Amino acid sequence: MSVGFHSLIHSFVVFVGGYQASATVQGPDFESVACGDLCSHPQAARESAATHTLNHLRNMASQARKR
Question: Tens of pLDDT along 12-35?
Answer without folding.
Answer: 678 788 999 998 888 888 888 899
